[in-house]
Amino acid sequence: MDGAHEYGYSEDQLLMISGIQHFAFCPRQWGLIHLEQQWEDNVLTYEGSRMHRRADNPMLSEIRGDVLISRAMPLVSYRLGLYGVADVVEFHAVADAEDLNKARLKGRRGWWLPYPVEYKRGNRKEEDCDEVQLCAQAMALEEMLGVSLKEGALFYGERERRVTVKLDEALRERVTKLASTMHQSFADGITPSAQYEPKCGGCSLIGICKPKLNKGSTARYLQTYLTGTVLKGD
User: Which pTM does this prediction carry?
Assistant: First the structure.
């Protein structure tokens, strides 16, 4: 579909839903990955990918009691302009026939309510980038199925711990603003400049990004180098 969707974004304007996690963590990291197509693995990204391979295997979908577990479920939100794949979506059977917050599933009897679960390798972060990604997935599910979700979960593999995330208005507003800014950055096509922070040490792109050589420090380095060269030449 080339034209604008009724919700705002068209098919060819959609950006990766996983990118909002990168953008929330560091806009420059997002630019290096999604604008410049650069990527480097480290032990953290390798272990994370290995854990996701199981979560994202659609052949592992199953039913446990009144919960249908769907893996690698395609998602799209034309409101946010994002698309991608959810690690796991649990569909909980809705027992109350009068409950309006429910959805039909193709090939399944009864009514269901989705519950997104995003898998992460390590522990919970100080930043809200994981929560932002989960909320974006939930907002896509709401748009696709016509339901309203109150919460989802993040599963951290290092401690095998599930953390409940409340999908409140503040988090939803942050997702909406991040998605809008991300689209503007994509349209501009400019990778944000580097700003060194303690979290940079765990980023697999630190060798490409070189955050300690930002614009100011690079200029000072060149000035010192050139000045030194001139003095030696004299």
Answer: 0.80
Residue 53 has pLDDT above 70, yes or no: no
Domain of residue 79, CATH code: 3.90.320
- To which residue do tokens 């599933």 refer? 105
Q: Which of 26, 10, 1 is nearest to 208 (CA)?
A: 26
Q: Domain count of the chain?
A: 1
With a cut of 70, say whether residue 54 has pLDDT above it: no
Residue 48 has pLDDT above 80, yes or no: no
Structure tokens that stand for 23 in this block: 């953008």
* Mean local confidence (pLDDT), 135-146: 97
Query: How many other CB atoms are found less than 10 A from the CB of residue 162?
Result: 11
Tell whether 2 is covered by a domain. no
| DSSP-derived secondary structure for 142-185 | HHHHT----EEEEEETTTTEEEEEE--HHHHHHHHHHHHHHHHH
pLDDT value of position 122: 81
Residues 50 and 122: their CA atoms lie apart, in Å, by: 12
